[in-house]
Design brief:
About 0% of the residues lie in helices and about 50% in strands. The chain has a domain of about 160 residues. It is mainly β. Strand 9 and strand 10 form a beta hairpin. The strands form ten sheets. A four-stranded antiparallel β-sheet has the order 3-2-1-36, with no helix packed on it. The two termini are about 35 Å apart. The relative contact order is 0.11. It contains one helix and 36 strands. It comes from Sporosarcina ureilytica. This is TolB domain-containing protein. InterPro entries: 6-blade_b-propeller_TolB-like.
Amino acid sequence: MVIFLTFSASLHSEAKPHLVKLAFIRDGHLWIKMDDHEQKITDESATYNYPPKWSFDGKMLLYEKEVTRKNKDTQNEIWVYELETEKHRKIFYNGQNPKWSPIENIVSFNDGGVLNISDFTSFPSFYNIALGVDDYEWHPDGKGFIASSSASLRPDGWTHPVLYTISIEEGYQHITDLTTNVKKLFVIPKEVGINNTTIISISAQQFAYSPNKDWISFIISPTASWSMDSDMLAVISADGKEFEVIDEVILDFTPKWAFNKNLLGYIAGGGRIVFGFKNKDLKVTELPTKQSVKLTPKNYAEMGFTWVNDSSLIVSRVPESEWSNSSEKRPKPSLYFVTLTGREQIKITTPPKNEGDYLPIFIPAINKITWLRKNDIANEKANLFIANADGSNAVIWVQDIELYSIYIPKY
């Protein structure tokens, strides 16, 4: 039986392929690929622990590199590269979690709990925005942030993690009091859970806004070692009045909203992968009804997913199995096209023996699917493939790629 997958052109308007850009790490250097041309943009080899990040307009690139000082301490330098001028600018000598504004070319970052914004007019030029910040995310309109403070251990136990909104509507350059622009949104309970699984609430992270901006998804985590096995996916209304724990997850798999509808996709199930390729189910929850659907068939586990449109997804799927210390014996995933009804579960890639297809990313602007093909989940290097949305005409886009980021034009 031959099955043809069709994707309505009305779901994603086509953009010119040359507008899609790729930034990636290879052999200690930062590269970009545009118009089928690869260019190395750093001269000296360095350690890059995080993927580069494109600005909202694709004209600039944010990257972080590890630097070892004379006393052997390491620092995380934040840099910006401008494509037009080919100039690199250092933003900060030791910052964490930098993020582009969604509407302009300014960068936020965390320095020991202090949230800052840099317009990189000069080094070190930045503005303090708020204190005591653990994690944060820009509001989609670029006029503020959702932020969290982590719980603290005191003699009588842990305090609560707290969510805040931070406004820069009056201008980030003019903030003199770092508390007046901050409002408490919600105090997270000291313990959260679902069914018979409960964790201590220590931190809140991975914030993401729903398409209509009415809901914010995030992950609540316990202490560091515990969080490798069990975390809780939660949602809160933008006004802070409604809070709900959705499911148990682990930090390895990032939840993702659909493009236009309030549908939250995620891989449910606790337990780190080294405990076995099992209990990892793709689910989608609709807001505000909070009704969920499970899309993973019995005896399979998911290793990643991407939305194709508001009614279908592509997943990286393996047969359930125990962990093996031998990489050859670990299961290798293939990609499957899945509809929200669950009626269609179609295998769209068949990797060679001893290779698997990981980390699918759909590019709506050109109606293409990308993924990493490598011989083991633990390998850092892979070949990045690109194909039609149904998996046909697959070719290697970039060889020997490590961390990477795709600039996807708005469609």
